[in-house]
Each structure stands twice: as structure tokens, then as C-alpha cells.
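Changelog excerpt

This revision adds worked examples to the README so contributors can see how folded entries look when concatenated. The first example is reproduced verbatim below.
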Amino acid sequence: MRRPLSRLCLFLFCLLPVIALASGFPQLGRLADKGFLISAEARLIDESKVLGAIEPDRQLSPASVTKSYLAAAALDRWGPQHRFATRLVSEVRPTSNGLLSGDLILDGGGDPALTTEDLWRLAQRLHQAGVREVEGRLLISQWRFGPVECITTDRCQARERSANAYSALLSSAGVNYGSWCVSVAPGDAPGQPARVAGCDSQAAVLEIDNRVETRPDNSGTELRAERVTRDDRDIMVLSGQISTNARPRDIYRASSDPAEQMAVTLLAMLEQAGIQVRGGAETTLAEPPAVSRTLAEVESKPLQELLLRVMNYSNNFMADVLALNLVETPRADLRQGGAAIETFVAGIPDHGPLTLFSGSGLTTENRTSARGANALLESIYYRPSLFPSFVATLQSPGNGVMRFIRRGSPTFQHHVMLKTGTLNQPVAVRAVSGYFRTRSGRWGVFTVLVNGTGSTPYLSWPEVLDPLSVDLERIIDTH
């Protein structure tokens, strides 16, 4: 009996470190009993002390926690104050009477947050430069990247139709995050059609199929919207009802071609600015000629401000455009953008394997581990010129813009800064990663990746955040 007993003791002794580490997440660990795959780790930064772990090296999908990698790589490459430029250029100069005898070219600079407001400023600056008429065409040049191959189901479907904005297609010459926006307001009386306009102008710049009916006061507002493409034209199909006393509702849907959306939108801005374009608008993959002169230019917000929107709102269009900008050569695709981030991460000690097919996390093939994600967070913590801009992009549960994270005790709500990630297909993914401050003021990092399987098709956020908040509260209070 001695030998089997000694082996049993040795076996149990070997398990003790694992049990001790997992004890840092006793509540969260119960998800493993339900069949979910977990990679989790929490540790203090100042002494690299692990306070809890569950399979910390397991490679799982991080979903939009991928954007933390993108933000770190972008800050490392460009610095917090970098701005992206969008230019109107031409090979010819305007004449004294305002005629541009050649083509006007928009050189898409990869600004991930270019909006109609920016295009209006661009048109005004062109007018200020003396241009009143373009004899040639308006060419939208997406030579840097675009159209980018769609490698996810939602984005591929968006080429024909879309009922969301998160699946926007990609281009270095995109505008309004690759999505159309229309504003729906009630008509004058019940029974009349709703009033529909573009969000940025009195008239919409795309075709509207308006089937929304105005109903009496307080009868409820239910709107359905789908952008469809017919005969190479985007159409917003709207249906449902809106109450006579309802406020206008803005609706966003991905366009079928962001560069074509740019062409239509900029052409409208130029016309409103009093600049006629005789040759219409086209898109092109050609780089503007080297002899082209800049006639007008607008710059983006600083990178640190762009990353606030990328991270807080988990904007997939912005994240993937930034990742594509990281690629040195033109005609970049999403895998190359992911590889550029992988190259940055390769310089982080003890990170381990990383696979990224996008910078947004919308691709289900992305893989990292809790230990790796924590290594990323710790490396940025030790870079004082970048850390303030990076940590500012994370949300505190108590006052974050995403309401679903406002859970748990005051300790969890106000001592934690995090980024979340969500996927529902082909399996459920709920991921959380960020920093915490202990009661004594020490900094820590934590990452929790929870992936479903074929037999665990659904996972709600409360099922993850509620036990995680209890486990982190204990860690924060005891250190």
C-alpha cells in the first residue's frame, strides 16, 4: 500500500500549485464545469506575483480584446500625437477664373475617423484655394488599401446588404466609418410617411425606400432598416412606425463600398460649396501622380483621441483601418495588418504565441492567452511616454460608456480599467482584459478569456462579469 499511497501524495502535491493559482478565480472557475474553455490570470506588476490563474497559457479567441494589441502597436509606431492627412490634389493648377482643367483626386490617407464634417472643411479649403469648377473627374484614390478582401461572413454579406454598422467594409479612402447614416423623424400627422434625411444634410445622399408610418402620440417607435444594393447603388430600406411625439432617430448601416460612398458624399459636399465637377466621380486604385500638387488638406484628430473611440466603442472599422495603416507596403490585407501587430508583440518578453488575422478581433481565428495579454499590458505600463494615452482608452465599469459593464461592487466598478471583447458566432466569446488598483495602491493586470464550444452555444455577459467582479474584489481588497 505504501507505493500507491506515495504516488497519490506526489500527484496531489503536484496539483497544489495549480489549485492555489486557480483559487484566485473560484467564482469564475465554475464556468469550466459548464463546459466553457477559460484562460485567466491576475498578477501584480511590481513583483510579477500571480494572484490567480486558470490555464493562463491556453490559446483562445480574444475577440475585441485584440484592439488592446492594436492600440499598443499604433502608439508604438506613431506616438500619441500622430495625425492622418486627407488631401485633394491635381496635376494642374486652377486658372485665375477658378477652372481646374484636369482631374481632382482625393488621396485617401487612411484616416479611420474621417467624417462628412471633415469633407465639408476640405471642400471649403478647395474653394478658398480658388477652385470653382473641375473640368475633369473627381477621382477617389484608395491606392494604399481597398477594397480589402472580406474574410468574415458579416463583411462579405455587407457587399450586398447589411442590417448593422459593425461589419463595415474597409478602404484607405473611407468616410463616416464606412457606414451610411439617415435620420428618421415623424411626419406632420398620423398616417403620413415619416420624414427621412441624411444625418449631415437636409437631403440624403443615397436613395431611400421609406416605408415608415407616423402613428399617434405615445404609440411607440419601432424601426427596421437594411441597406441593400441594387444596380450598383446603395439603398436604405426603412420600415416600421414612429410616434408623432418621438424624437428623430439616427440609423447607421454599413455601405457596400466605402470608397464609392466617399465619392458620392464628397461630390455632394463640393456641389454645396459651389464647386461643379463636370466629369462626375469615380474610384481608382492608382496612386496620384508624383507631380500632383496639394490643393486642400485636412488632418485627423491625434492618435490618442482616435484610440478613445476605437477602444471605448470597440469600432471595428477604425481598428482594422489602423492595422492596415501599420503595413508598410500598399494593397495591404487584414492578415498583413495582423502580422504587423504580431511583429510588434514579438519584442515583448515572455508574451508567447500570438495569431492575429485582424486588428479588430472580428475575425474568429485570432488567438492569444491570458498570460500573453497581461505581458502586453505590463510592457505598456513601463513606457511612461505611451502609458497615459493607452490606459485612458480603457473603461472603468462604474462610468464606462458601455452600460453592460456597470456591474459588481463599488470596488470592482472603481478600481478596475478594462477592455471587453464579444463574439457570438461560431461560438460564444466573452473576453476582459485590463488593469486594477489594489487597496494599497499597487497596480495589477488581469485577463480573462472565455470561449464556448459546440456544446456551449451561448454565454451572457452577466455570467462572466458577475463572478469576475467577486474574484477581483477579493484580490483588490487583500492586497
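The second example, added in the same revision:
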Amino acid sequence: MNGVIIQYFHWYYKGKLWNEFAENAEYLKSLGISAAWLPPATKCNLGLEGRGYDIYDLYDLGEFDQKGGIATRYGTKEEYVNAIEKAHHHGIAVYADIVLNHRMGADEDEKIKVHQVDEEDRNKIISEPFEVTAHTKFTFPGRQGKYSDFIWDYQCFSGIDIVYRDGGEQTGIFKIHNEYGTEWTDDVSHQLGNYDYLMGADVEYRNPHVVQEMKNWIKWYLETTKADGLRLDALKHLSSDFLKEWITYIKTELNPDCYILGEFWKDDVKKITAFSDKMNDLISCFDAPLHYNFFKASEEGKAYDLSRILEGSLLEEKPVFSVSFVENHDTQKLQALESTVRDWFKPIAYAIILLSEDAYPCIFYPDLFGAEYTDLVGGKEINVTMPKIEALPKLLIARQMFAIGEQIRYFDHPDCIAWVRKGTDEKFGCVTIISNGDEGFKEIDLGQANANSKFKDFLGHRTEEITTDEAGKAVFSVNGCSVSVWIKLQP
């Protein structure tokens, strides 16, 4: 089956997401969506304002009165579990977004010892060790020990960014001195010297009690929610040794079919494949390099060489473990990694990830449903409209009906490329042709089996019919800065 993931949220989404997703499950299935990546369901420090990435209590899925209320931004635990049940009823798997790196919003302060490090080189110590007060103790009084009585204290954390001493607040990056060491763990990304620390109270995975608690928690989570897979956040900052142990536990003890998808955000494919290799291929990764190719192509227009659109991508290097995407909540406008693919290029980009062999594509909520939002940037209110991509539903249907069989590429021109999906003995697949410049044409030989056959553009961008000659050849066309998907008409 030609599986497709939908990222069913964006950063600025407001509303009852769990209920809306449940209502739309049948429609998503009709488009061929086979899996949905939902945002973090756990209670976060900012309550209804948090997006789920500022993790407070992993066991609170919208059940306890904590951080300003019972529900999370997206709804209650009951609504979340019901949404997953509804998805399963329609044959859609659910991937839960899991944040392992940090905690925020501690319940109590502790006296701890720290030293400060250089933010640009975390291996460089810029202070002597000193005593401080820090928010590092999590007791979860609103939950009162239900599901787990584990207390998180400073021995469970390796670093923090806010400390208090001499009656004042001090910000920076501070390495916590605990019984597991005064150095960062080394099996993380070496960006900025050592990228163990990202934000909040950074979890210490050298603590065996923490590792056991995380195993206990994921067992509870999967049994409670019946989620089919996990999307793991911010893996550059996590111990790969812990990850291997934890994922192996999930695969061997809990669910061998649990799909694990990681965000290891690098624009260099070699670094992603090195991470994948280190993880013994236990995990698939988002293809950030391909996203950046799409972004660059959309910015440069005709000056971009389309024949090189897949170069340096995970789809090219390690397709079985790649997940291709055009946009996500980090790259959308006004976000930290903003690299928004321009609207004119999005149908082209989606055609590439939806109709190519080997790709496991992930579509983005606003591209299917549209989105409008507002944010403050430098004190100024910015309004953003993300129009839905009109061709996307048809491209999704084309993936299910025609993106089948062996692929033959015609990546032989900088402004116009094509590829053929040969289909099966019973049914021809399709010819996809794209242009980032002027109207384009491509002569393609489809073989004797497709001689004297008529073809039409499934997307309706071209209105003419094309007929192959007695040898099965024809010239297929595409509008400027557009995509066409040519399918065979039944005689």
C-alpha cells in the first residue's frame, strides 16, 4: 500500500484538535491517508497556551487539574483516546508525538551545585562551581501518585537555563553536578561543542532510575492510548545509547510493529545517515535536506536545476528509513526554522514526494485544510494566511490509483523533468512531468504495450488528450511552473 502520513496540526492551531481529527478521519481515509502524526498529548507548563513541547507531566493526558486546568490545548484524555479509536475504525494508524529531552514547570525548588558553560561551546566552562536554587523537583501534586509515584529531582537532570542566587535570577546554560557526573553526556550531536542541552530541565539519561521510569511510562502510554507509533522530538540532543535501549525495549517487550520516526534535524544527509546507522536502523528520520531543496527551488524559480532536486536527500541515500515532507510546524512562517516553501512550488514538491517510488510522504495540515494565524514579531502583529493547496487532494488520490510499479526517471533538463511509473501487467501507472520555468515538453517511450493509447492530465492542468504512436511514444506536456500527471484512458 502507498502509505501517507498527515501531520494533523500546525504551531498556531486553536480548537478541539482531538475532536476535529475524529470527525475528519473518514475524509482522510478517502484521500488515502494511512497514518496521522498528532501533537504531544501530555500536560505542559504553559497549560492551554503550550503546544505540548514544554513537557510538565507525562502521565497527564488531560485528566488532572494541573497547570491551570484539566484539558490540554487540544482536549481531554478521553477525547484523545476516542480520536485514536475513531482513526483505527477507519484504518488509520496514529503516531504519538513524544518529547523525551526536557521538563518544564517544576513544583519545588532545590539547592544544587552547577557551573556555567559557554552557550556557543558547551564544552567550555566559564565559571567555577557554585551553589544555586533551581526549579528541578517535580512532585505532580495534582496527580497525587496515580499511575506513577516517581519524583523527579536534580539527580534526574543534567542541565538547566535559569538559576537563582543572592536573591536574583541568572540565565545561561548551567551544567548540574549530580552523581552521574559534571560533564555532558558525549553520545549526542556535537553541534555547539555538545548539544546535550536544549531547554528547560534537561533529562539525565545516565540515571538508571530515569531510564526505568521512561520504560514504565511508555508501557503505560501505549497500553492506555493504543497508539501505533511514535514521533520522537529533538533527537540531536538525546543520548543515542539511551534511545537504542529504550526503542529496543519497545520493539521487543511491547510492540514489535511500533513505528518509530525521529526528528534529527540536519541539512546534511551524511549526518542523518550516520545517526541512522548508529541507531542500528531502529528508527526512520525526516528528510530535512529534501525540504531545504524544495525551499531553495521555490525561492530560485527557473534558476534552480530541477534535475538535481533529489541530490543530497535521505530519499536518495536511504529511502527505506526516510520520511519526505514539504512543510512542518517548525518551518512554517514565523517559526524558529522558518523556511517556508513558496505556494507556487508546493504542488510540484508534493508531486515529487507523493508519486515517487520508495517515498513515505508526510503532508502538512494547512496544505490540506488551510490556516490563518497571528503572532507578535518584534512587537509588531503579523498576520499569516496559508492557503490550502488545491491540487493536493487529487495528488493524494493519484498516489493511491496510479503511483505504482517500477519508476523510470527523465531528469535530463534543468527546468523540466519527468518520471514514469510503469504500473502492473493489468494497469499502466502514470507519467508525472513538472516545470519550474516555461511550458515544458518531454518525449517519452512507453513501449509497445501502450501503443496508440490516449492519455489525459489527471490534475486537469492541461486539457488536451495525448495519443502515443504505434511504438508507444508521445510528447507529454506541462504548463509553466506547474505539474501534470498523465494517466491512460481506457479504450
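Reviewer comment on example two: Residues 307 and 411 are 5 Å apart (CA to CA). The chain has a mean pLDDT of 97.
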